[in-house]
Fold this protein.
Amino acid sequence: MDNPIYFSTKAFLLFLIMAAASLGCTSEKRPTPIEDTNSHTSQNSLDVTGTYVGITPCASCEGIETKIEISDSTYKLTMIYLGEEEPNQIKKTGRYSWNKTGNQITLENNEPPNQYFVGENVLIHLDQNGDRITGNLSDKYRLKKQR
């Protein structure tokens, strides 16, 4: 038992077992980086062309009847302010552009907030910063695609 070779071999094996055990017991899992250039986005996976409609909230009226017609590279926006004595209708046309991640469009030639998240058969109107609107009325900012 006092053999130095036996002791150093035993110590070395004990060290290997402890090292292997400590490697297998990490509490944090690190995400595997995804470098798939063919990842799915709204831009490359969904048919965004079509007509989207809904009534969005309005601070000074009953609501804004909103219709956006999207083609391959252009849009036509019509907004009618409901409940006013004289109907107030705004029409805008222009081009739209995709964000870098391919999930939002920005209506060019239109004042902010002019960004929309693109989902399957839905456009979700975003706030001034391009974030989703939260709160009790958040569902009212959805424009559904007509078939």
